[in-house]
Amino acid sequence: ESTGLCSLWNTPDGSNARLNIRLPNAATTVHFIPQSEELFVADSAGNATIWKLPSQHAFSPLASNAICTRHSASQKWLAATQPDHSITITNNAQDSPSTFQFTPAEAVHLLEFSPQDNRLALAGFTQQNGGSLVLLDLQSQKPTTEVLHFDGWPTQMSFSPNGEWLAIHVLRPKGNQLQLLNTKTQQLQLVDLDRPDVMLWQTTDTPRLYVGCRNGKLYEINLPDIQPQATPINSDRQTFVGLTLNSNGTILALNNKDDVS
User: Tell me, what's the pLDDT at 63?
Assistant: First the structure.
């Protein structure tokens, strides 16, 4: 809400658990991390923190000196932004974890590891330069690109299963946008869509992206062709809240606030 307050509710009891997180800005994203006792909270200023859920009383951040933390899917890597805008990256796969530090040219608030554990995408926003994106090679510990810029605030990033594409959802006052980065050619392209709201990669190695838009249409993007193809669905659909696929990628479920199909 606008006061920057998140409250935890006890669902079995159906009542407020009287546990609150006070934020300096309005909360924009609240997400429980699956199979853990952790809660992700981000605010309108781009600050993000993973909180350890309490057994009784007070919340506590997992890393008080970090603004945003991110694990790779394999849990091999952990990245955390620091107050000085540097990124601390730890390799947990070794007997003795090793850490290196990278300072991007511009402040970032989004971190995303590739499925292959070989790249880290860093995205941010400044009033002077707008949205920014850089890819970091984890082996060499060096960026693979110059800083790429685009118009708007990046709110979500997601690699394709084969790691060859990166989708970036961008918030803009004139309407959301979707940017696609080819990680091989380092080319960033704007996809011609009407106010995309949610996106989801096909779970197989096929680089196919599903996108739900504010115009009530669902699109498929079959890469490397970035031209969206509309998928027939109910014509009364207005807003996509979420998309999810089963494990073998054959059933796509659509959440539209009032119904799921």
Answer: 46
